[in-house]
């Protein structure tokens, strides 16, 4: 395979349209005669609905229809949840509330009007008579006797309990010289995709054809599920994910609004559109994280970890979205981190609360696990008075120990944790940094260095381990003109696979990258696929492309062999040309080019399919395959191949992140001095895309560590409901990042790629928290809960001052 | 959220207590109160125009006076609903005499929901304090006005 593109920093082919504002997000798609939907949402966290009066709303000029829960509940199936756990209590989640509302933002009614303004005005006129009910908000308190129960039919707020892990944890903790305990919070976060959700639906009653444009990461899965909700045939239902402005897991879901708009379009026989406002986005698009846990870690005098137990209360919210109950189980899987821990136990209690559902947010359960393990190692190091790096090294498995089996039941494919750590230490000048820190401390400065060595589970995943298939699909076609079309079942929405898959195909086929087009996200064009999440698109979807091309080349090779009349000679493919190895070839017969030139630019002509002596180009073969005048006997015409790739394992990328911060003693503000990240995601197709993924992930991790928090008040009112109150990091908060890589390929796929989409949020959060804690360690600080706000730091410094005085 | 404070009025305790029980006075004192109609003893329906920060709207409210211990204790509960959500507030007022007037000490609680909560939450404390201040200032001028011969 020629390496003209793979491994190079090829500029994203997506960017020109995005930068110029020429891309088409859902709201950019305008259909004539479109109606607009606006939702009325609950202003209470928990209340009985005594009545809903829509009469005034229906009279507003321009309003076409108003629907409430009573109108639709029997017509549209429940919002699906794919999490299958033993004894899971699953509430019936209807698209609109009927008798009760369970969280602020719970949709109660929808107004459909000629324009958004009329719909909004009318929604304001809907009278809902609520009977307020007491709320259950805290995932721990909600499990205690006397707490209000959200779903009365269950008699409890506990949705499930789950214990997992291997090894005798009691014995392991007993055998330790010391056991450290720590309560650890992983606060609720809002994913805040740049583009909120949006849905546009068109129904053609004559053709009985339903078309939905929706901002999703999983077009095919969404189509299947929405078809089931609507009782509409899946094969007449086209779902398109157009340009999608970020998802971070929040669009790895099937939402009530999507199905409801589908139903409305069929009721009214007119296109209908809904674009989520930012306030709705923070209220009623899934949240992430939301765990309160209790850690116990045992260790020997020499720093060897003997066992780890984590009892965690997971805040699930009031209803399940697609993967709500499954997310905390991923936390359990990754609790071994990149360490040899002989016994691990996780006890998960999944708890209903009067809040929006939690679900997958960039990392989805794994950042929580990494945070717990990394905090645990730091607590051990602090307790021993040792360098956190040394405690980590003590517990790493060696590269020769791979595939490495964890006490959580996973087999890590490949890894060289020491390699990434060493590189990060070298880049940062770690030992010099420690010397400088010691000097600065003598001057009274608060400087902290945080190190996290992480491993993550990516390329989700083998179908056995996934709720709805873990494979991915690709079709690769060479068109008669020789242009290459790649159809991928992955659904990139910012990751850049239109570029990286084109790099891959261009190299494999020996064509120019501009001759490759990658198509995704349209269920009527692309064969069934699973979608983009869990850092899977390249490692699983890209591998499907790789195999499809190999399959296609086999066929092309046979055609070339025929065209070249190679006989016993062996035909090889290099740089876009098929050649016969043995030079003795007689002149080939010339097939007549008779393909009509309709639709081609004036003056353009089809490539000459005539074999040029000892070789034929891929374009020659493609044309011959389509003309079908001279093909090997019994060969199907055309030149395309489809491959469904089923991975045999997950992949386990890893790395080391080092943060250096200085704290302003007067204000408590945290300033970054350095940020070093060495990530190992196996083979890299486009280093620029990998850097972009890591950078974005670090920014979101920094958000969790220092800024972000979904806050509900004691009545369940969402008080962090706008971007004035929900603090996402701003440009000025983001440090310069020194990024590097090590490359440890995996054998799970032939390209050796692992996935990198979530690495930043997994590796960076603990490094940043560790740096702040380290900075404050002279004041006796061992642990702080996120987000670590300047106010928290300032109070600690202030208290210390008073204490000293 | 909790609010508390005190306000001194240069009028007798009996006069202040009487004013607090007079719907006409209440209508003038409750900030933004456009109408107040008695529905039963100590129960009123009101129309209020109020706002928190940029969120301004009309509310329909119920006003309830309870826990009356003349002339020293009085409780006012207002529950308003409007397009941007709801506002609920209650205040316990205790009236104490001092040389030259009456000191009203109040403790109360304010809850809001809907858009007001998600957009205006951080202004609510200051808004609540401001509204309480307006109420007592108006009450003071009412008691003065009526005691002026």
Features:
heterodimer, A: 805 residues, alpha+beta, Aldehyde Oxidoreductase, domain 3, Aldehyde Oxidoreductase, domain 4, 3 domains, seven-stranded mixed beta sheet, five-stranded mixed beta sheet, 28 strands, 28% helix, 23% strand, globular, B: 149 residues, Alpha-D-Glucose-1,6-Bisphosphate, Chain A, domain 4, seven-stranded antiparallel beta sheet
Describe the structure.
The complex is a heterodimer of chains A (805) and B (149). By secondary structure, chain A is of the alpha+beta class. Chain A has three domains: 25-133 and 196-244 and 251-284, Aldehyde oxidase/xanthine dehydrogenase, a/b hammerhead (Aldehyde Oxidoreductase, domain 3), CATH 3.90.1170.50; 288-458 and 650-804, Aldehyde Oxidoreductase, domain 4, CATH 3.30.365.10; 459-510 and 535-648, Aldehyde Oxidoreductase, domain 4 (2-Layer Sandwich), CATH 3.30.365. Helices cover 28% and strands 23% of the residues of chain A. Chain A is built from 19 helices and 28 strands. Chain A has a seven-stranded mixed β-sheet, with helices on both faces. Chain A has a five-stranded mixed β-sheet with strand order 7-15-14-13-8. Chain A has a four-stranded mixed β-sheet with strand order 18-26-27-28. In chain A, α10 packs parallel to α18 (759-776) and α14 (497-509) runs parallel beside α15 (537-563). The radius of gyration of chain A is 29 Å and the shape is globular. The relative contact order of chain A is 0.12. Mean pLDDT of chain A is 94; it is low at 596-604. Chain B is α+β, with helices and mostly antiparallel strands. Chain B has a single domain (2-144), classed as START domain (Alpha-D-Glucose-1,6-Bisphosphate, Chain A, domain 4, 2-Layer Sandwich), CATH 3.30.530.20. Chain B has helices at 13-20, 23-29, 115-147, and strands at residues 2-9, 33-40, 43-52, 55-69, 73-82, 85-98, 101-113. Chain B has a seven-stranded antiparallel β-sheet with strand order 1-7-6-5-4-3-2. The longest helix of chain B has 33 residues, at 115-147. Chain B is globular and about 45 Å long. Classes of the chains: A alpha+beta (805), B alpha+beta (149). Chain A binds chain B through residues 43-44, 104, 124, 279, 282-283, 713, 715, 717-719, 721-722, 724-725, and chain B through 1, 83, 85-86, 111-115, 117-119, 121-122.
